[in-house]
């Protein structure tokens, strides 16, 4: 069951869009959101080029503490206001089946906080990486490779669709990653009013078909249909077809090849990460 969603945040202006999508799912599934503020330690702020005199170190620590305290206060204020507008209760003792949220502070780099908090979550929600600003890439990688959990990648702008999660598409090519994505997102599939399997591209040699996946879902009480497509670049086609079908969420297996190779040669997952303007659940 989808009962715990981790939303790691820092002062980069992306909190509201990620929290908005996480809140929509929390309401739909009765889940508890843990907003984890990643607070940098003083040692993370020190330059590595040379040793600092003790007075300079003390000054830097004091300034870092002051900035971190202010950032935390601002984020808490935003959280209180935003959650109140969504009518979601703030509590440290969630009730199963009721949407709620709590704010926790964790020290360390964003990637480390995600790894530590994400492994006992049912979903990790992060913002789409912004390559131009060099923000978010490490967070997405940590969520995918270090938690073993599904990762909701939220678009960097735009409002949450009113029917978010009602119509879901799932990319299917018979791969191991796609199979994991199916198994780890059954709750999302069950909660959707409509589920469409997107089948196209080369697929896996001797891999299972979309019709077999339909039967897999049927045995679990989920009605699914299939949409077959032909595209030279499936990574570009998947979000586009999802939008054309009127779906609000795409689910897919991520980085079937290693991350470095996909990033270098533009594999399907990397194309989706770079270009998608819709929410995507990625499973590695």
UniProtKB/TrEMBL annotation:
Organism: Roseobacter cerasinus
Protein name per UniProt: Universal stress protein UspA
SUPFAM superfamilies: Adenine nucleotide alpha hydrolases-like (SSF52402)
Domain annotation UspA: ranges: 1-118, 229-284
Cited Gene3D superfamilies: 3.40.50.12370
Family: Belongs to the universal stress protein A family.
Entry-linked InterPro entries: Universal_stress_UspA, UspA
Domain of life: Bacteria
């Amino acid at each position: 069951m989808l009962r715990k969603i981790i939303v790691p945040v820092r002062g980069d202006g992306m909190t509201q869009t990620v929290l908005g999508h996480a809140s929509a799912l929390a309401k739909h599934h009765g889940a508890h959101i843990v907003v984890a503020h990643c607070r940098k330690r003083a040692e993370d702020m020190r330059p590595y080029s040379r040793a600092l005199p003790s007075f300079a170190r003390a000054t830097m620590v004091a300034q870092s503490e002051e900035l971190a305290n202010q950032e935390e206060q601002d984020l808490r204020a935003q959280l209180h206001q935003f959650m109140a507008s969504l009518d979601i209760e703030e509590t440290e003792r969630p009730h199963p089946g009721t949407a709620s949220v709590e704010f926790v502070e964790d020290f360390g780099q964003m990637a480390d906080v995600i790894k530590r908090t994400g492994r006992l979550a049912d979903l990790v929600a992060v913002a789409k990486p912004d390559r131009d600003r060099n923000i978010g890439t490490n967070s997405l990688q940590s969520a995918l490779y270090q938690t073993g959990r599904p990762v909701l990648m939220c678009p960097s702008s735009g409002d949450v669709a009113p029917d978010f999660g009602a119509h879901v598409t799932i990319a299917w090519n018979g791969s191991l990653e796609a199979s994991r994505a199916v198994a780890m997102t059954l709750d999302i599939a069950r909660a959707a009013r409509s589920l469409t399997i997107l089948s196209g591209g080369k697929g896996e040699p001797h891999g299972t078909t979309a019709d077999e996946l339909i039967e897999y879902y049927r045995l679990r009480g989920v009605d699914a249909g299939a949409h077959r497509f032909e595209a030279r670049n499936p990574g570009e086609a998947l979000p586009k077809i999802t939008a054309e079908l009127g779906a609000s969420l795409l689910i897919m297996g991520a980085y079937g090849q290693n991350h470095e190779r996909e990033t270098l040669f533009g594999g399907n997952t990397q194309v989706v990460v770079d270009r998608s303007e819709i929410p995507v659940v990625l499973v590695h």
